[in-house]
Amino acid sequence: MPADGHVIFLVADSLRYDSAHLAGQATLPYTESRSTRFSQMRSAGCWTLPATGSMFTGLLPSEHGATTQTRDISRDVPTVAERYRDAGYRTVQITANPATTHIFGLDRGFDEVHRVWTLADRRHGLVDTILSILARPRIRRKLLTDTEDFVAGRLAEDVNAARSWMQSNAEMQFDMARRILRECENRGQKAFLFINLMESHFPYHIADTFEPSRDGVIWRAKEIVSLFHLANQTRLTVDREVIAPPMLLALRDRQRRAWNRLAPMIDAFLQEMHEDTGNHVFFGSDHGDNFGEQNWEYHFSNVNDAGTHVLFHALPPDAEPRTIHTPVSARHIHGTLLAAGQLDTPDDPVDVVAEPERSLPIQESYWYNKDNKTLPQYRFNQFAFIADHHKYVLRNTQWLRSRIAGDQAESLFEVLPPDACPVHDVELDPELRTTLLGHFDHFLAYSRRVGTGR
To answer: Which of 184, 355, 375, 394 has the largest CB neighbor count within 10 A?
Structure first.
């Protein structure tokens, strides 16, 4: 049935699945008791731009065009916000992440985009501002190479966006959402609302403003240096381990603590939105982070489970709670969002809640050129899919395989024989195999077009 009320899509940025499901904790008691939730959903991309682009369009990164190499989402591809706007909804984005805005075209279709970094009161000091600038290489380059721009104030948005990451803004975003929805209700208007929260993203907010996770000068210095290397992806530019394993575990624990702090706020907001009769409410994460798994750090250029295993809860007005264990793709959230408003579409999008068996988890990643310093051994694109309780990955012309093991990030990959070709060899439903082969051919063609830098 079409939504009598609003359609609300909330995303906790960078939140990996096991951070929200550590030791079986019920961190979202209201949501988990009333939603359709997924235990085996994988993001189509490994960072905000391609992952969000896929949820907004239902396409893989190479198809919608917003990847590490190409950046901008294709103007030929309609977004879910455009479809809702065309259906008469007021479309609003409230975001704490610049990657979801006009910078890469993910603002398309929204009547309004509210950017947290232009609205939030600053609650941190000079040291936090300096740390936020040091953590963003693009801003450092501008400061060092374009003094006139800096003096003229043209870097204000870049700096403010980075500074907004040093404090928690979720409650402000929720209050803004409430106000906008009240306005819509007073006008008799329905809304499609997208909210991106950054508390679970670097630097992982364990308090209202940034603070180290433990006391002590030595620990604080180690943690701040480790966060610097994580955000700057130093691992891609030096042929050695940069962040010590104990500090990687400490950073992973930061995200878990950040989630435990954020989850009650989210659960209360989702309850409020869901109990408002007729609203369709959706909550999930766009991708995950890596804290040393398979030698990857942060969330660029990888397809491992730490970076792609995400959570998703769908709370329609009158559905019974259930858990879907079928492996599915987060890109098909797009079809579920469209189905919430029963929007007319010229194609046949997959509704991942109603027909999870039609969804096949496929991930793509494209190597990240870190200031032209990325080492040759990291300059490769990857294609992965999940079938037969395994993840299959094409990396550097070599197929790899790893068994999927519950809530945890998968184990190390085993190398398959040179003549193996899982896209042909793995047993699949005929329709899914046709889908897989088509996407794989498109990935190969796209990779040849954009190049790998090798």
So the answer is: 394
